[in-house]
User: Fold Transposase from Spiribacter vilamensis.
Amino acid sequence: MATAANGVSKRKQSRYSAKYRSEAFSLAERIGVAAAASELGLHATQIYQWRAKAAHEKFVGDRERQLREENARLKRQLAEKTEFAPARSLVGRPATGSMLISHAQRLAA
Assistant:
């Protein structure tokens, strides 16, 4: 990382804008990577690196979207499960000894 005169490190600025890279990709698709690089005054490896980075960023973005959707689905399932859980536990719970005794006492009275 580059260091400024005051000793604080600063991030190196990108030399080419995203728009420029996008146009370089389009040109490379039309005439080929080597010809596009030559025409733009770049090394072909630069275009390949940009393309690989863009593909990686797209993959990461797609994966994040999939994870967000899955999290939302799981949260909905959990909410449904916890919403209906108390009703199920009351209905499906077996009678305890104290419940049987109190019921028997009511019948005797």
